[in-house]
Amino acid sequence: VEARKCGYELEWRSQFACPMCTLGDMEALPGECSVTGQRPINMVWKEPRRCHGGLALPSVRYEECVAVMLDKGKIALFAVAGAGVLALLVGALIALYLRNRKMYKEYSMLKEQNEAEVELERYTLDDDDEA
Fold it and tell me: Burial of 103 by CB count in 10 Å (0-12 exposed, 13-18 middle, 19+ buried)?
């Protein structure tokens, strides 16, 4: 038998017990600045969402922004820097080509000398065998 009659506790979880949504429950999520100088600002709910009803999320609004523009001076600077790097690479390739060409000429001369010596030894050996 119960000692306390009619002393029940009931816990009922419901979204309707949450406070009403306000601007404090939202946060602005800015987008990228477009070429036209406008960027969208979307409002989203803060997570975890602890409100219900009240204000709805506003529609997307736009604000002015400064788009990153390349002026002629920056473009010229990038072009000069790129041309400088390209010139260095081409110069390095030409230097490597000339060095390797010189080494190949020396190698070819040594190879010809070696082949001549081998041929000379073959003839001297053939002459010794015939005698």
Answer: exposed
CB distance 20 to 34 below 8 Å? no
3-state helix, strand, coil in the chain (%, to 5): 50, 15, 35
d(CA 123, CA 25): 102
Question: Does this model's pTM top 0.70?
Answer: no
- Residues 63 and 26: their CA atoms lie apart, in Å, by 18
pLDDT tens digits along 55-68 = 999 999 999 988 77
- How many whole angstroms separate alpha carbon 26 and alpha carbon 22? 7
Does residue 15 contact residue 52 with C-beta atoms inside 8 Å?
yes
List, for residues 88-109, the tens digit of each pLDDT value: 999 999 999 999 998 999 999 9
DSSP tally for the chain: helices H, then strands E: 1, 3
Q: Is the peptide bond prior to 48 cis by the omega test (within 30 degrees of 0)?
A: yes
